[in-house]
């Protein structure tokens, strides 16, 4: 998300007041994220850094990412950015900025076209294992990481909340009302499985190839962009990654699940619930925003919903 040059200049000036040696070094990401604008800075002592400016429209994203990075660093074998500095900005359209360390590596998404199939399969297995490690970080409520954010009393309450929003949006974007009813019943029929969730854990909610860094081997080395993290059912997080893997390399789904370690019927049923909810939400988003090739994507997602429900 781009920001005005004056906002970026204010953020850089604030960083330089705290770290006088820090300077822009010309680095930019291959793709700017949907939340925040990112540029590269460098400091003789701190090394390569990333400055991220957060829009005010994404309430709580800055605080969420700072807390999530701290929690994730204790659980993952992958590297995550370390927060060096956070600060406020005067512009009413932004929430503030974070200065964090820059991880060496290349986005999996940028390398995907040249990777061999057996390599992506091994990477999918490794992603599943890292998600399992992340989900060892346990919370006490379902919902926002930040203390003043929204929450629900149970995993099922959160599913009801999400399914209501997702299915309403689905129908509003020309989704089939009959298929929406089938999806709702599919979810409701699996309430017992959702209720079997042992408790909320730290969930990233966007562990996809655009947020995963590889070295030259290629091996997974880092994970980025924790601004959407919540306390949630871990299988909701896994399902989000599953939807992405299935789109790019359907044959890698078994490796992802094996790396994570799905073992029980209740886990498989919970995963199926979140798979349906993620597909419904993604289909509504695509139908609303209409990116290139959107009609084919919508048709494919509708077909998947019709098949599984």
From TrEMBL:
**Mind telling me which Pfam families this protein's record contains?**
APH (PF01636)
Superkingdom of this entry's organism?
Bacteria
Q: Where is the Aminoglycoside phosphotransferase domain?
A: 43-270
Q: What is this protein called?
A: Aminoglycoside phosphotransferase domain-containing protein
For this protein's source organism, the top of the classification is: Bacteria, Bacillati, Actinomycetota, Actinomycetes, Micrococcales
């Amino acid at each position: 998300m781009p920001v005005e040059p004056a906002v970026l200049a204010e953020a850089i000036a604030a960083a330089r007041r705290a770290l006088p040696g820090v300077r822009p070094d010309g680095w930019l990401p291959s793709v700017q994220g949907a939340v925040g604008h990112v540029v590269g800075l460098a400091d003789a002592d701190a090394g390569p850094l990333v400055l991220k400016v957060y829009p005010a429209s994404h309430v709580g994203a800055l605080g969420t990412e700072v807390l999530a990075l701290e929690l994730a660093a204790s659980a993952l074998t992958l590297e995550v950015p370390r927060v060096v500095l956070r600060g406020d900005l005067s512009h009413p359209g932004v929430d503030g900025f974070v200065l964090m360390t820059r991880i060496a590596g290349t986005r999996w998404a940028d390398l995907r076209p040249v990777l061999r199939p057996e390599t992506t399969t091994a990477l999918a297995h490794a992603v599943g294992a890292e998600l399992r490690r992340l989900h060892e970080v346990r919370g006490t409520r379902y919902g926002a990481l930040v203390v003043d954010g929204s929450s629900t009393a149970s995993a099922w309450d959160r599913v009801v909340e999400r399914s209501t929003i997702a299915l309403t949006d689905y129908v509003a974007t020309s989704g089939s009302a009959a298929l929406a009813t089938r999806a709702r019943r599919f979810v409701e029929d699996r309430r017992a499985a959702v209720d079997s969730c042992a408790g909320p854990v730290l969930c990233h909610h966007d562990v996809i190839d655009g947020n995963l860094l590889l070295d030259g081997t290629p091996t997974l080395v880092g994970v980025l962009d924790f601004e959407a993290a919540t306390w949630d059912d871990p299988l909701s997080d896994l399902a989000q990654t599953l939807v992405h893997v299935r789109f790019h390399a359907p044959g890698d789904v078994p490796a992802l699940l094996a790396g994570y370690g799905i073992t029980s019927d209740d886990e498989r049923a919970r995963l199926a619930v979140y798979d349906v909810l993620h597909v419904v939400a993604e289909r509504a988003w695509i139908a609303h925003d209409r990116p290139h090739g959107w009609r084919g994507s919508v048709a494919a997602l509708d077909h998947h919903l019709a098949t599984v429900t």
